[in-house]
Amino acid sequence: MDAEVDFTLMDQTCPVTASTWIKQKQLTGDKGHKTGCEDFYVYSFTANQLPEEDTFYDVGRDVFEFKTFEHFVRRSCNNCNNCDRAAPVFTAGEEAECWRPTISDVTSEEGKISTWYRCGNDWCIKILPPQDDEDRANGYAAGLTIAGIVCLSAFLPLLLVAYYFAKECFEKSPSPPPPEQHQQYTTSSPPAEQQQYKISSPYETQDNNNDTNNGISNGISNGGGTSLFDQMNSRT
Predict the structure, then answer these.
(1) Could you tell me if 119 and 99 are in contact, meaning their C-beta atoms sit under 8 angstroms apart?
(2) Torsion region of 193: left, alpha or beta (phi above 0 gives left; psi -120 to 50 gives alpha)
(3) Is the dihedral of CA 215, 220, 221, 227 positive or negative?
(4) Which of the 8 DSSP states describes residue 78?
(5) Which of 57-71, 142-156, 217-231 shows the highest mean pLDDT?
(6) Would you tell me how many other CB atoms lie within 10 Å of the CB of residue 205?
(7) CA gap 66, 122 in Å, rounded
């Protein structure tokens, strides 16, 4: 944004045709204290020399009438009820310097201008200096910069304190143990003992049972001298 580049001062002045008061604005501060009063005006003017400035404006018209944006004038008192309305910057019949955009077609991509410029009309023909808009934008940017510095100055000590305690906690905290190293061991099981199993046939089992029974009978017979069967027969 550069007013000297974006706008061109026209060779001829522009006659002011009307000065219209729009409203007043009461400014207040903390706790409702009144800190100022502003009066807003809109100025009407003509710029019939435009076709001579640039063929873009040669649209078959003889009269070119324009209006400004709502421009405020500060009163001398803080309370709007305690003083008279502020005088306008321009009055009807007065000749005023006027500016046009350096690239006349402000609707084109090439001629697009900053939105910080307050125009009041589609062609942005101005009798209020465009430098005022640039100063207003720069003042706003400076205010944001100052606010950022103030906030940073307020929170930087807190950030440093937080960083200090975080560093202390990190240094005092035990470090994690090193990862375990797993070793591979080779284990071998002893060879399985071979067991021999004897498979007997049912005939061998029957013979063994008979031998067992005979052994019992013989044992009884040998122990008493007479078998139990013979003893029973002798009693009958």
Answers:
(1) no
(2) beta
(3) negative
(4) S
(5) 57-71
(6) 10
(7) 9
